[in-house]
Amino acid sequence: MISCCFLFGCLASFFDATLDGSNFEDADLTLANVEMAQFNRANLRNAVVREMYVSGATLFEGVKDIENSDWSDTFLRKDQQKYLCEHPTAKGTNPVTGVETRLSLMCKD
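Above: the chain sequence. Below: its structure as tokens.
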């Protein structure tokens, strides 16, 4: 399990990683490579996940919490975007960037 705070500028890479149960609360994952990663039970509350590199195999299904996260300029597969938009914690505003979670996910509502 991973617990972290600031990864921006480190060029963090979680390529093909199983991040099940990881705690990314308050983390800055800007520009992180999460190609083919799995986020089952991962906590992304208050996380900045801007311009994150994802691929068609990146899975957010089963993610625990995305409240107050900022997904700006992270291009998600349509089914993953839909899943995150329908997640019960898809709400709030990121405390660092001031961007609304649903707006950054481009949710239709």
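Confidence is low (pLDDT under 50) at residues 1-9.
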